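WARN no homologs supplied; continuing
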Amino acid sequence: MEHVAASAILDAQGTVTGWSEGARRLTGYAAEEAVGRTAGELLAEHAPPELVAALTGSVVLRHRDGTRLALALNASPLLGADGAATGFVVTAEASDGQEPSLAAQAFDQASMSMSIFDARQHYLRLNNVACQVMGVPEDTLIGRYYPDTVEDADHSRGFLRHLRQVAETGEPVQYESFTRAPSGTRYHAWNIEMWPVRDPSGELIGTALAAFDSSEQHWARQRLALLNEAAASIGTTLDVVRTAEELVELVVPRFADFASVDLFDWVLGTEEPPAALAGDVVLRRVAHGSVTDGTPEAAVRLGAADTYPPYSPPARALTEGRALLATAGHPDFDRWVGERNKRAPEGTAHRVGAHSLVTVPLRARGTTLGVAVCVRIGHPDAYAADDAVLAEEVASRAAVCIDNARRFARERTTALALQHSLLPRGLPGQAAVEVAHRYLPSGSMAGIGGDWFDVIPLSGSRVALVVGDVVGHGLQSSATMGRLRTAVRTLADVDLPPDELLTHLDDLVTHLATDESTTDDVAELGATCLYAVYDPVSRRLTVAGAGHPPPAVLLPDGTTRLVEMTAGPPLGVGGLPFEATELELPEGSLIALYTDGLIEGRDRDLDEGTAELCRALTVPADSLDALCDAVLKSVLPPQPADDVALLLARTRALGAGQVATWDIEPDPQIVAATRQYATDQLTEWGLDETAFVTELVVSELVTNAIRYGEPPIQLRLIRDRALICEVSDGSSTSPHLRRAHVYDEGGRGLLLVAQLTQRWGSRQTVNGKTIWAQQPLPPG
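OK structure emitted
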């Protein structure tokens, strides 16, 4: 193509002193109009200092008709006799309006964005697609520095960095970018290639680039990746709510700015699905999530039920059984969003800009379970038909997982009902220990076993800690567990020492096995048990085991150890003795009782499991409940094969100010003084209101000990959550309650004690027995 050659002569001050015919044709200025003017008057934009210094580059001139004209100029100095520059010859070339060459047409009409920059990242050429991407015509960009034409953002800075890299190294660059075009809000994926442009001499004079819009391929890959991730991340548990949460976690923020899952109530229970939908639809919110912390867009709180009118997108999706798209401006969409805003004004600001949603029914095996809603607020792209197809595929996967979880929960709920009914529903309040517990049934239906635990208040502010495990699984084991737990409570009520209690329990299991061996189909009976008694007054722990792992103890100084004790035989073996171990614990010690499901695993032995348990107990936690969770998380194998019971107890101690003890001489005349001891102590404790009843109890129990018992005799008052009066003597004969006749002179003492106190009883000790009575503290 022919070109117009233009030249001009400037003096040292930048004044035009010569003007060629090519310059006139190029700029429209005649020689008489240009000569005598400064070069700066002909520029539409100031030339950067670096361009003046380099004597070459791109500038923007103002044509005589007012249009802008981008030119690539070269300046050559005119030297005087002394070698100093006396002026400059400036040359430029531009098209004279003839038909462009085939190469130029191919450049302009290319389907990808193509641009050319000089070595200092100023625009020299752009094709049609590049102008569309930038949103402005070519002549407004020619000669301008790239950063001045775009927003200051990471992708812009990265683009400039690659341009400079090519200009500095002379090596081509390829990279991918995901960003919005300056001319729009939709995100695009770009494959960009940049390469150096050289003149015939090989000198680098610019950088050319081609950017291919690969958005469709990008979104196709994203959709495929989302489906692959859905297969892996949804349905990891057989829990309905967790499965719904996994669906929300998958789509936010990759597919939606806000998402929710609402299910019918029968999905969360054990009822059968209704025959058909009619009128308003009532759903329960089980999961929602948002790109904003706290999910302020939600008009329905988690766990709450909501009524969806027939016009609403969720109700329409359920009725029609397919995914529905809705956008701002549609009457039903605007009406529904408006209703949401009125219900929760505090979230209105977060819903401003909600412009598109897709609603998908959750259907599995021909049954509709609920609905999932995805909303775009900050995301600029509205949902399209391919998004609806993707949403249906993801929702279908989630619906099958939710239905699986529902069926599993329904079957498992029936099987676990017996197990849960036999475990303690609420541990009784007592002051000896602070307790926390966890029970985890095995994950399989066949894994419902007979693990149990219990906390039993005993007299004298003591407490019994029990954990046991029945051999086998199924309803037979659960039933046996219930009988053993009841037996332990019965034996504990008579205050048997741990070793004696296990002996009686062993006899019971033996009898049960003998009785049931007469049936045709009997599972093998057997169990392990650990029984411990802690006394907060003496701070002593007495423990005995029947084939059960020993407890772990964490002392206040941070050291942990397993209690060294004699391992007795499992219950049901019969004929072998059990031995008790006693140790003193500092206040604040932590006792961990557990079943073997916690420490056993397919890939580790018991020593490794118990060592891990001891380490887990030392991890700081805000509460015992939090420590229970931490222990389970740290110690449990990835797939527990058995039930797990964990009972943690932190010991407390009753200080000297809460216990008063007197040795009593076996003389009836000392009874009055004993009553006064008790009265004075109650006054010191501020319990004068209890003095009348306490005097009667002390008088009766001490009198009986002197009259019917044997030395040594001791009176002890304990101020705990209740007021406890104990009288001990050396006789092992236990008293019993009887009804006195009209003319009897005695026999009414214990009856009087029973009537005036909350509880009373007796327990055997090493040296005799202790009679105790408990009365509530006055309010306040």
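The longest strand covers residues 68-79.
OK
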